[in-house]
Design goal:
Radius of gyration: 25 Å
Largest sheet: none
Structural class: mainly alpha
Length: 102
């Protein structure tokens, strides 16, 4: 069973490397002077580069959003359960908030 797992991981790494290489070469072709001479034949290459950039940006944005959403959810839960104590402040300052005398 470990052999197939390693084969699967190896195939994913190979796919990512080949896709990165193709994207790198396509971006290099887009930057050349002769790309405009290709006309409509260069459009699929341009769309390939733009689609990959969009997918990468979307993946990074989703990662950032869901990472921060977990923190917001935990902070909201903290406000409902213990409104006097903020765990965020406790983690930063490592001390309970000072009580003011009445």
């Amino acid at each position: 069973q470990h052999g197939w797992r390693r084969t699967f991981v190896g195939s994913l790494v190979l796919k990512l490397l080949l896709t990165s290489l193709a994207l790198f070469l396509a971006e290099g072709v887009l930057a050349r002077k002769y790309f405009k001479a290709l006309g409509a034949f260069g459009r699929p290459l341009e769309l390939f580069v733009q689609a990959n950039r969009l997918a990468r940006d979307l993946a990074v944005s989703a990662l950032i959003f869901w990472t921060l959403a977990i923190g917001v959810l935990l902070n909201s839960l903290n406000e409902v359960v213990c409104p006097k104590y903020n765990l965020h402040q406790l983690f930063i300052y490592r001390a309970c908030p000072l009580q003011t005398a009445k």
